[in-house]
Design brief:
About 70% of the residues lie in helices and about 0% in strands. It is mostly helical and about 270 residues long. It folds into two domains: about 80 residues; about 160 residues, no CATH class. The longest helix is centred in the first third of the chain and has 40 residues. The chain is globular. The termini are far apart. InterPro entries: DUF1468. Pfam families: TctB.
Length: about 270
């Protein structure tokens, strides 16, 4: 005879399926409100960028549109808007825009680190640190790589512990950058080294937290590769092909410039 304890319990299976579906809907609800906040930010950036001149004349010489100071913020605003629309679409398709079912009304609200308000606040904090701390002080390629890594990691992997980890890492980097920028130092690339150290440290701690989950480790590896690859592709395009001056040209861009000069001399 078959032991009844070994038979699957239909009620338990149904409860587990409902719990998993309810958790997915809660995540998509947070994605829904997050995407709306990002869309508002993208529209604000787009409106501000459109106030910059696309062409101008200096000393009788007219600059082409591709060297306009509006080009880079416009590209960021459009990209952010498209990504926000994709996130909004996914949230709506998965039921994130619908009201909660009556069965889930009795459940407790999401904990603060995973709540929609927290996600929006963290996103705004990352963007604020990037714009007002990283970009004015650190090599633009490194600043962008650090921002992308800190920004993508907690939301792509969706592990609550990564939100305070990345936020604390960003704040510590901001404090160190602020302190070093107001003190004379013999190290030319000291602030760039802070960005590199922050990225490596946070990535190492994140890997340690995720080490028992191969799928999440693969996601972390993808985030690291994307965060490094995107600036390495976009920065040379804007700096050397479109001739757009970047806010700070430090360790990475100076290395690129030396490589371009070497290749030009060889050619």
């Amino acid at each position: 005879m078959v032991d009844s304890k070994q038979l699957p319990d239909p009620e338990n299976q149904a409860g587990a399926a409902f719990s998993g579906n309810d958790e997915l809907i809660q995540r998509r609800r947070r994605d829904f409100f997050t995407s709306l906040a990002l869309l508002l930010l993208a529209f604000a950036m787009l409106a501000k960028s459109l106030t910059f001149p696309m062409t101008d004349s200096y000393g009788g010489v007219t600059n082409a549109w591709y060297v306009s100071p509006a080009l880079f913020p416009l590209s960021i605003a459009v990209t952010l808007g498209l990504v926000s629309l994709l996130l909004l679409r996914r949230a709506i398709l998965d039921g994130g825009a619908r009201r909660r079912q009556s069965a889930s009304k009795g459940r407790s609200k999401a904990s603060f680190p995973a709540s929609a308000s927290c996600r929006v606040a963290v996103i705004m904090a990352f963007i604020g640190l990037y714009v007002y701390s990283f970009v004015p002080s650190v090599d633009f390629a490194l600043a962008s790589a650090l921002f992308l890594f800190l920004f993508i990691t907690p939301f792509y992997i969706e592990k609550v512990a990564l939100i305070p980890l990345t936020l604390v890492g960003a704040v510590i980097a901001c404090v160190l950058i602020t302190l070093l920028s107001h003190r004379p130092t013999s190290q030319q690339y000291a602030l760039d080294l802070v960005a590199i150290a922050t990225l490596l440290t946070v990535a190492t701690i994140a890997w340690w937290l995720l080490r028992h989950s191969p799928s999440e480790c693969r996601k972390l590896r993808t985030v690291v590769l994307v965060s490094i690859a995107v600036p390495l592709v976009l920065v040379p395009i804007f700096r050397f092909f479109l001739l757009v001056p970047l806010p700070v040209e430090g360790l990475v861009i100076d290395t690129m410039q030396a490589l371009v000069s070497h290749l030009t001399a060889q050619g």
